[in-house]
From TrEMBL:
InterPro entries: 3-OHacyl-CoA_DH_NAD-bd (IPR006176), 3HC_DH_C (IPR006108), 6-PGluconate_DH-like_C_sf (IPR008927), ClpP/crotonase-like_dom_sf (IPR029045), Enoyl-CoA_hydra/iso (IPR001753), NAD(P)-bd_dom_sf (IPR036291). This is Enoyl-CoA hydratase/isomerase family protein. The keyword NAD applies. PANTHER family: 3-HYDROXYACYL-COA DEHYDROGENASE FAMILY PROTEIN, 3-HYDROXYACYL-COA DEHYDROGENASE-RELATED. SUPFAM superfamilies: 6-phosphogluconate dehydrogenase C-terminal domain-like (SSF48179), ClpP/crotonase (SSF52096), NAD(P)-binding Rossmann-fold domains (SSF51735). One of its GO terms (biological process) is fatty acid beta-oxidation. It catalyses: a (3S)-3-hydroxyacyl-CoA + NAD(+) = a 3-oxoacyl-CoA + NADH + H(+). Residues 6-195 form the 3-hydroxyacyl-CoA dehydrogenase NAD binding domain.
Amino acid sequence: MKRIDKVAVLGSGVMGSAIAAHLANAGISVLLLDMVPPATAPGAEGRSRLAETAVQNLAKLKPAPLFLSEYSTWIETGNFEDDAPRLKECDWVIEAVLENLAVKQHVFTHVVVPNLKEGAILSTNTSGLSVEAMAQFLPEELRTRFLVTHFFNPPRYMRLMEIVPGRKTSPETVSGLARFIEARLGKGVVYAKDTPNFIANRIGTYAGANAVKHMLEMGFNVEEVDALTGPALGRPKTATFGLWDLVGIDTVARVCANTYELLPNDDERDIFRIPDFITKMVAAGQIGKKAGQGFYQRQTVEGKSVKFFYDHRTGGYLPTAKPSFPSVGATKQLDLPAERIRTLIGDNDRGAEYAWKTLRDTLIYAAKRIPEISDDIANVDNAMKWGYNWELGPFETLDGIGVAAFVARADREGIAIPEWLRGVERFYKIEGAKRYQFNPAAGAFQEIPVAPGTVSLTLLKEAGRTVERNPGASLIDLGDGVFCVEFHGKMNTIGPDVMSMIGKGIRRAEEEGIGLVIGNEGSLFSAGANLMLLAMAIAEGEYDDVAMMVKGFQKAMMGIKYAKVPVVAAPHQLVMGGGCETCLHADAMVAHAETYMGLVEIGVGLLPAGGGTKEMALRAIRMADENGADVSPFIFKNYQTIAMAKVSTSAAELFRMGMMRPGDAICMNLDRRLHDAKLKVIDLAANYRPGRPVTGIKAPGRSYAASMKTQLWNLVQGGYISEYDRYLASTIADVITGGDVPGGTLITEEYLLDLEREAFLKLCGQKKTLERIQHMLKKGRPLRN
């Protein structure tokens, strides 16, 4: 396949503009075209207004479709009538107009076919229309380069890309475009068949409709269903009805109606009929978040915002009551999704019965769709994980429950199951560092290929490449002299086990290898230091233990910074507090594009004391020196980053925050991150020069701290921060400016670490800090006391 440098997106609606934004995120030039507004004369201004307005609105949308707002400059705009000839500039054209065959035919015939560049790929973003029905509108030769590329909304955040080739689509087109989409756009590609709603929406729509069916049959309400179909069942917190509010209840109703119409031979077709209460909600405009009311809404009661849920029995709203089921409560402390699901459906309360019935039916429905919607089960599982954020796909869930146990329970209840499920022991297995899936057609296992440029820690561990392990972390041999420290505790928090493994990893790399990667494959990189251990030590007055803990953390961070071999951090998703400090001390970062990093310790009444405050001070001073400038703007910026607990909204923003530096890299594909970090280690190792602790640093001094404190006084007077916020931020100001010394006083890196540690211990002795820590542990959000 030829190189793709420029892409055209046809249609600037919600999906079209968001697809254009994500292409811009990837550094790809985009031409966004839409129709000319009605009654706009030739040559008049505003003929490209639809596309122009869509691009202008990108910066206002939440969640943000762009990594940085200025990336919108990568998008050029135009209209179908005047700018169609510019399609000859584009290597890939994505049609994203109205989901209507007649409209698509018009665009293909009059806009695309006369202007398409020779060899360019044409795809449609349809969410369920037949690729073959659309291919009929195209010349025979173009059909070899035509296929479905179904982005999920919002395209920046949803990993799934369903690719559906037509009968004439060439294998080269499919494989080449898939590689590009995976590497440059960071998508997880699933290959679907030309069936209504493809894979994810077919199973996902069924799961939602089935949840409604059992709600009505068993007498549950909306809030109860969401309590049972969220994390306890391995699903997102939005659960069933929260998700429908997010998507739009009118959209869900339309998809269900279309599914019913397009699937006359589906044995469970009737489940897609929309219940009367949902039809009434749509007619009344109660269609979800975009309307401010749906299955949930917020109302002001006695001056406070109160959440209400829709009561399908009366058509009114009731205040949420946070329903409690013992079966759900039993899952709260379980990390593994399979454990949670087994615990939930294995209980005997009415919530467990509901969860079992809705899960049972969905798993059976998925099994019946093989080979109708896909020939292999991994495609189905990946579609549900990447498109609906399920923690486990249907067949992974069956493995977690136990296939034989599932079949036996369904049999006891007289529920029909696909016969091919009988006798299947499991759907996945790992042998010899290779992962296999069960092929129902062959009745045997087949290898799941690993995409080039990926590193799987799971497979490496199965192959015996674990060098050392403790409850919080492991050291894994990545090959070529590169080792990896993997965090794997609860939320990958950093405690003694992790710090110990960092030290062991550095020593092993120094003695036997060329460098070290710090990264993992968890749902997040690290939530930071282990607050539970800290809270227990503070509550018991064990301040010597706290001092030792902080000293050990600082030692581990300095070990990373001054190792004799390069250390590269590979963060992704949440990277909070101590996790951020770990990355700041590495020689380089290879961050996944969706990395949300910050020094957020002030939220629990503390300051970054694992070298984070010190590191941000050093970077500010270094920037001033390198630019021959006053330190003021640099130190104030880094101070605000800590004092305001700023968290990046993307990896790209980390460069602005001073947390990523020239030479650091952003990886779009989550599965390539560790591989790219390994390559970075190898590159750095060729001419690596270890650093030494910094001395002769010119402290900004007490005058800068005083200026910061003046601003804090103003914020308190304005009611923007509390007195304790002021106290905490003042402490940070004292540390980041080098303490109570005149400006220009020469200090050392070690001195800054001592300041951090002393300030941290002082804050640990404050009652309000302990309250903040305990509130975070109980509620999962900061306390403003």
